[in-house]
Amino acid sequence: MALIWSLRNDRDAIRPVPELEASHANRKAESAVETARQLEARVERLSMVCQAMWELLRDKAKLTDEDVIKQMQQIDLRDGVEDGKMTRQTLVCPECGRNVSSRREQCLYCGTWLVKNNLFE
Ligand SMILES: [Zn+2]
């Protein structure tokens, strides 16, 4: 009997208390929901900006929907794959010559500010 009690206590000692696990999981879930809300609001705002820019170009530069679709196809194919996505490119640092993700503002290795290939990266 004493052995069973001892094993049970040892097992409980190394496991977090269930209430703490639930509380931690709840905070993580709330944080994920808030992040999703912020991203959704940002996407909605960016969609409205794109729509406004498109309507200005259509009205002032006399472009058509077909012009936009053709340009989107050209951009899609820049990475050699027609998948409806713009694949991020690897940049070469002008200072140290190492490859750096285009997501970065500065070279990971030497800190040089990187020149982006387009306005949206
Ligand atoms: Zn560098």
Textual characterization of the structure:
This protein is mainly alpha-helical and 121 residues long. It has two domains: 18-84; 88-121, no CATH class. It has three helices and two strands. It has helices at residues 2-14, 18-61, 65-76, and strands at 90-92, 99-101. It has a two-stranded antiparallel ribbon. A hairpin with a 6-residue loop joins strand 1 (90-92) and strand 2. It is extended, with a radius of gyration of 26 Å. The mean pLDDT is 86. It binds zinc ion (ZN).
Set out the fold topology.
Blueprint: H1 2-14, H2 18-61, H3 65-76, E1 90-92, E2 99-101
Antiparallel strand pairs: 1-2
The chain binds zinc ion.
Describe the structure in brief.
The protein is built from three helices and two strands, in the order H-H-H-E-E. The protein is mainly α. The radius of gyration is 26 Å and the shape is extended.
